Amino acid sequence: MYKNIDFDSIALTGEAPGEEPRRQYYFIAKARRYVKEQSEKLGRPLTAAVITFGCQMNARDSEKLTGILEQAGYEMKETEEADLVIYNTCTVRDNANQRVYGRLGVLNSLKKQNPHMRIGLCGCMMQEEGALEKIKTSYRFVDLIFGTHNIFKFAELLCTMLESERMVIDIWKDTDQIVEDLPVERKYSFKSGINIMFGCNNFCSYCIVPYVRGRERSRNPGDILREIQALVADGVVEVMLLGQNVNSYGKNLEEPVSFARLLREVEKIQGLERIRFMTSHPKDLSDELIQVMKESNKICRHLHLPLQSGSNRILAAMNRRYTKEQYLALAEKIRREIPDMAITTDIIVGFPGETLEDVEETIEVVKKVQYDNAFTFIYSRRTGTPAAAMENQVPGEVIKEGFDKLLKVVQDTARERAALLQGQIQPALVEEMNGQDPSLATGRLSNNTIVHFPGTADQIGQIVDVELKECRGFYYVGRQVT
Ligand code: 5AD
Ligand code: SF4
Known about the structure:
By secondary structure, the chain is of the alpha/beta class.
């Protein structure tokens, strides 16, 4: 494990080792010497910031970047006023790209004030040819660009950048490599995301993820379990198993393992209190998985089950590989087997060819399933996806009408579901102190509902019983009872 490594004792005289992760350890040691020299020259520590856009996968990747930067000797900052700024980008919808372009403008002016400043870009947006070209030509002040497949090489790329005056670019089209045992610095001491697989093979017709994250690759169960055990030994009580579709975990391993089987093994880890996972595709959520969730004391009562649309015609065009009826039957089975399970979803409005009648069908599904929460997105045309080439793109005004109507139903349903918990006593994992009222602690219930209650900072990371006294829309105000 990297924790036992003394980076200062790694000799830098010879060539870098060929095999991973030793190669990256070598480059961490090298970066560390550079950072030390620079800060001695400047008479102050060198600072770095990693700014994350997008999903939980990206948040986890940022923890890996931060781990390496800390080992290299950078002092981490929360804001862009730093000597090295890394943007870990998202490209799932165009507004994510636009946010990056906007903030790059601000970075450019900061760089003019700080001659030592370096700027790096990585993540999903860099895997997209159009975006990469635009940055190469219009954002010449960027120093380093890399993608999602070679993030394990960050230490090496960092060294190349530190030694170069030119823009360093390294983008891979795909990879089958998974490098274990690299440094990670967690954002929270008591909970952590864990990648169980990378990439996606589903090719929903609107989605850019399979193009930017590559084909599905699962980590070995042994590596996952070892990582979780080490995290638990380090104070973690809750893990979130991450994959674009966790239901296809393990299918392509040399010795195939089902996701349900993996969960049974994770459950056995002593000291681990809570298990979450994200995301589950409705097309292949197995009965075995429902059974494991039902029997488990640790798997949280929250399932994120993206619907995307409730119209069979649109679902077929989206290549989702289930019908409205199949989805409803699945949701009903889950509600029947595990009545306290919260179900949340993602919905897209404005997919090519979608009419207001189709949105009505989606609304009907929302009413039937009674989602505890739903993330609603306006369709974004992503270059290179099959849906982007469809001719019947929907005009903005039509999308807005359907979107507003759907949003209202989603919010009403979520409020009704939240109100059902009134008066219950439930365990909550204390995550932080309330930003507005420092006398309140903020906890998360197993079903993902948030509760604020009078508490203290030393409770952070503990699971306490809380009475849910007053429902305020989607969250609760409560009182600790233990
Ligand atoms: N436009 C709008 N929303 C999208 N999503 C994925 N691709 C697009 C797109 N092109 C949404 C889906 C997915 C969530 C992560 O993002 O609902 O579940
Ligand atoms: Fe996550 Fe997808 Fe965005 Fe990449 S494109 S950060 S995988 S949501």
